[in-house]
Amino acid sequence: MDLNGYQHLAGETAIYPNQVKKLTQEAEQARDYSSIARLLDLSYVGLGLAGEAGEFANKVKKLIRDSGGILTEENVLPLIEELGDALWYIADASRILGFDLEVVASANLAKLANRAESGTIKGSGDER
To answer: What is the domain-level CATH number for residue 79?
Structure first.
């Protein structure tokens, strides 16, 4: 499956809190997807992404604590599930911003290639 196909299918499962969904639907009906509705949508998925990243990190911590960092099928599968959940939020955030997931992935690879070329892969900060 390609990333855009994933993004489309993932978007079909988006369930937002009633208030956010109501504002979004009203904005779409008025053909005016307002900044407030988009911001609410983006806030919701941003918080979800942070939560999934936290769940992933917690499972890695427990893998180190309980398994001495040894990867097995049993302890890797839950990590894959959390990565999938994080990917869902990334795909929906991309949709809200109006970009295909493949555009986001390509832009990231271009940024990394630029950093590698300029020798700033190991640096810190966004403007390297």
So the answer is: 1.10.287
